[in-house]
Amino acid sequence: DFSDDSTITKEFAQSVTLLRVGIPSLFLATSAAISYPTVAMWLASTINDSGVFAVVSQDASQYIQNILTTSGLMFSILVGQTYYFMYQQQESTYLALFEEVTMAKSLLEQVALVSQGRQALYERILRCIQEYVENDLSKFNDVEPAFLLSARPVDDPLEEILYLTSVGEPSLVYQTVRSLRQARARRLGALQRKLPQIHMLLLYTLALIVLFTFPLLGAGVQTIGGSEILAVQAWYLGFIVLGISVTMGVVNELRQPGITGAYNARSILNIM
Predict the structure, then answer these.
(1) Of 38, 111, 133, 217, which one is least surrounded by beta carbons within 10 A?
(2) How far apart are CA 259 and CA 132, in angstroms?
(3) What does the pLDDT read at residue 26?
(4) Residue 62 phi, psi dihedral angles, 5° rounding
(5) Using one digit for the tens of pLDDT, what is the confidence trace for 92-115?
(6) Going by C-beta distance under 8 Å and a sequence separation of 6 or more, which residues neighbour residue 151?
(7) CA–CA separation, 15 and 1 (whole Å)
């Protein structure tokens, strides 16, 4: 439940996102920094070949560097495009919500005029509008948008409003309901998941490939600088893991506009 105070609501949502993204990111960064020297030394003991150490420590063939560059480039392009795409979807969701809420308020005003003097009809139409708001407008990703759009006309409260307000020919409410349905379609289209889970798994896989090159390089570098150089590199690796984790956390937040968080659209709807 959201507070009536929009400032408190925003601060709470931002705190939730900060905790949901920040805590796992700090945990992963700390774990990476602590385990890096151990993993690097384990790889060194596994390799245990002076010729390999000479190549890896200097990266003479630039083979590892090419792997890191290629994987890092693919990861950067995919994450950047994914973030841009999800942010565009978030913007489309907000625009559709504002339009739909505006049309819903207009419908409410017209219904009050049409049913003036007919209390039973007015209450029945209000129940239809309430059902529409609770079971459709405020659902977000709780229900797949395609399922909501495929509902039978008999289960559609907007269809019932048309039936109640039209006698013989469409009433003035018809055009408003039509516009409301169009705005609803745009909202559902914006909320429909367009990136499968396999896409996120691909991004995590590329991130792991990028990060795995560091312990391998550390296994070679320790022959030159000893274990002390690994302690220094562990800090840098921790910062890299923190940045990647925060970025992936933000992308995941954008993928779920219905959950409580800084990128949540439901809190804005509650204010409207």
Answers:
(1) 38
(2) 20
(3) 93
(4) 60, 20
(5) 888 888 888 888 888 888 888 877
(6) none
(7) 15
